[in-house]
Amino acid sequence: MKKAYLGVDIGSISTKGVVIDESSNILSDSYLWTLGNPLQAVKNVLNEISQKLDKSYTIVNSGTTGSARRLIGTALGSRVIKNEISAHAIGTLSIVPDVQTILEIGGQDSKIILINNGVIMDYAMNTICAAGTGSFLSSQAKRLDLELEDFAEIALTSENPAKIAARCTVFAESDLVHKAQIGHSKADIVAGLCRAIVLNYLNNVGKGKQIKSPVVFQGGVSKNAAVVKEFEKELKVPVYVDPDGHLMGALGAAVLCKAVKEETPFDFNLTDINFETKGIECSNCPNNCEIICVYKNKNLLDAWGNKCEKGAQKLHSL
To answer: How buried is residue 29: exposed, middle or buried, by Cβ count under 10 Å (0-12/13-18/19+)?
Structure first.
């Protein structure tokens, strides 16, 4: 039997899954949109991974990360449930062992991770405003009647990027309209947006942080060559983008599984099991906790959200 490990990263915009061997080589992967339904998204990812995976491998452990990591980890019976910072760092270190700075810009949030000799020393996240994220770029692409995939190619033709105020999505959209009205070319506006994302990130997420090389850029926005170019211009160091950079969280979760001694063989038939969630409000005390319940074939599998033992009493009464 050849052992393999599954990692799943469930984000608000996309869900990623990878299967690795004992040398951390990626055997199979999938990247699909979450579409507001993490349970179904994971089922779709697992189906795609299963079809690509060499049948001589057996998954002996699974791990989850991302915004829905506990929900999906509970549903899949995962041994590893880790936050995004740890997972992204571990995944990146498995590919770039000497990395010192990880820049990550996702669909709705962004983060920076500082590493020294393989140890996380500091990090910061921006989850308050969508300005400077993938969803911000996507909305501006629609406003400009452009495909997001064409952004980089168009931006790289500009010799005079427009100055776009991207500290806030509302201000950025207003500024973008103004720049178009006074005659800036579409290429200059797109280049200005790419530059604004970088300045927004460095002035907010990276503020006060000592960014050291090697620098690795990941997340969906890292696929935009114009944004990469602007990061290199501002940081004055090379910025490395791995072809699998969008999978780093899932890869990290899979790598962490290798350290778990007790094996829990994974059965892809789980995708045929009916998982569902239900939110209830506990009124047994003034906290009025919102408890999230996870059901497997209508049987309560796990629940969380209660802040005292009265929440547990509420669950027993269901």
So the answer is: buried
Tokens of 145: 């009647």
Q: Are 218 and 102 in contact (CB under 8 A)?
A: yes
Give strand ranges (E) for the chain. 2-10, 14-20, 26-33, 57-66, 80-81, 101-105, 110-116, 119-126, 215-218, 239-240, 275-281, 290-296, 299-304
The CA distance from 204 to 200, in Å, is 6
Distance between CA 136 and CA 129 in Å, rounded?
Answer: 10
CA 68/CA 196 separation, integer angstroms: 30
Q: Which residue, among 315, 303, 308, 316, has the nearest Cα to 285 in the 3D structure?
A: 308
Can you tell me the distance from the alpha carbon of 190 to that of 268, in angstroms, rounded to the nearest whole number? 43
pTM of the model: 0.84
Range 78-108 burial, b when 16+ CB lie within 10 A, else e: bbbbbebbbbbbbbbbbbbeebbbbbbbbbb
Structure tokens at 6: 């599954």
Average pLDDT over residues 242-246: 92
pLDDT band at 120 (very low <50, low <70, confident <90, very high): very high
Secondary structure class of 57 (helix, strand, coil): strand
DSSP-based three-state secondary structure for 72: helix
Q: How many residues can be counted in the chain? A: 318
Of 11, 5, 4, give the one whose Cα is nearest residue 246: 11
